[in-house]
Amino acid sequence: MISRRRLIQQISALPLMGGLMSFDLAGASRLILPDATIPTARNYFQELGVRTFINAAGTYTSMTGSLMADEVKQAYMRTSEDFVDIDELQDKVGQRIASLLGCEAATVTSGAASAITLGTAGVLTGTDPEKAAKLPHLAGTGMKTEVIMQRKHYIEYAHAIENCGVKIVYVDTKEELKRAINKNTAMYYFVNFLNYEGQIQWDGVLEVCRQYNIPTMIDCAADVPPVENLSKYTDMGFDMVCFSGGKGLRGPQSAGVLLGKKKYIDAARVSAPPRGNTIGRGMKVNKEEIIAMMVAIESYLKRDHEKDWALWESQVNHIKNSIGDIPGLEAKIDVPVLANVVPTLNLSWNTQQVKISGDRLKEEMRKGHPSIEIAGGGKNSVSITTWMLKPGQERIVASRLSEILHQKSI
Ligand SMILES: *Cc1c(COP(=O)(O)O)cnc(C)c1O
């Protein structure tokens, strides 16, 4: 129960305290639940001397991902007031998410990487808790030991699969894929944004895996927008689909979802908290993140995506136009075909004419007030997105960028 002292502190912080004093304590504690959208007076980052910045880079984990939508923040605060059974909550939230997205089943994980680990674990163990307790040690257990992926699909996050103790078998062609499949093959792992890099595309992989009865997982971590993708890959026939919660969905950065066939989601849950003797025990999501993830999906489905797009595009155009013509500088607005599908301003230049490296330009943007983060870097290029900007911040990004580039150009 809320302490009397704290209650009085909270009440005295309210503008209209008169009427509240007559409520009983429990009622009052509900009434004065803080509105998560109103920041408290304390600025924790300032107190600690932690730099905050304008994010013109994108949804990077190192930059804390995205900012949660207001509705999501409110859901987070509201749910912190009660106790619930975590498995019951996961069951019901999973059903709600699955019905919203039109797939068989879903579960909230602690990010796309955890969805990959838990999904892989489930394929290995089925719903047998004794097997789950053995991971990542597979030898002598009778569990399968190999996961296949294309060499061209290699990404660091494949480590999330190896956490389960399996070995990754790399292939390039469809023929190699067929030959690689054997009695130890547990699963096939596909990285959506690398579809066009590999020689075997979505349907090729699905066809072979269906033929040999191999479960398929697709990593779609950064693949919203577009909103349709939330249903596209389960509809296409992938058994498991992994999304980040804290990128385009603007849910909690420490959450994600695993969508797919009920049989695999049920099996993945065996390795998920609260069960302690599992590989997933450190991948905890509590009620706040679970509900906030659900609300983020609801809220994302309701958004006016065309309006979002128009805003991002106008912001990116504003930045491009503010820089104007600089000899030796090329400014192009592109939209990636897969992953981070948002208007992206790509700047590249001849360093004889614009005398600054990409890395140095990033550093100059970072060192200014306010600090600004942009993406890319290296010798002579940077890239900028506007989807993580608050409206109006594009003006600050534009004038700072333009100032530096003009200073450095001959
Ligand atoms: C971001 C990302 C991940 C990891 O997602 P988290 O939600 O941060 O765990 C995995 N795969 C790809 C392709 C990603 O872009």
Compact overview of the structure:
The protein is of the alpha/beta class and 410 residues long.
Question: Can you describe what's shown?
Answer:
The protein has helices spanning 4-12, 25-31, 44-48, 70-79, 86-101, 112-125, 129-134, 159-162, 174-180, 202-211, 229-236, 262-270, 287-302, 305-323, 358-367, 393-408, and strands at residues 54-55, 105-109, 146-150, 167-171, 185-191, 216-219, 240-244, 256-260, 329-334, 344-349, 372-373, 375-376, 381-385. It is α/β, with parallel strands linked by helices and 410 residues long. The chain has 2 domains: 68-302, Type I PLP-dependent aspartate aminotransferase-like (Major domain) (Aspartate Aminotransferase, domain 2); 305-408, Alpha-Beta Complex (Aspartate Aminotransferase, domain 1). The longest helix is centred in the C-terminal third of the chain and has 19 residues, at 305-323. The termini are far apart. Pyridoxal-5'-phosphate is lined by residues 61, 111-113, 155, 157, 191, 193, 219, 221-222, 244, 256. Pyridoxal-5'-phosphate binds next to α6. InterPro entries: PyrdxlP-dep_Trfase (IPR015424), PyrdxlP-dep_Trfase_major (IPR015421), SelA-like (IPR018319).
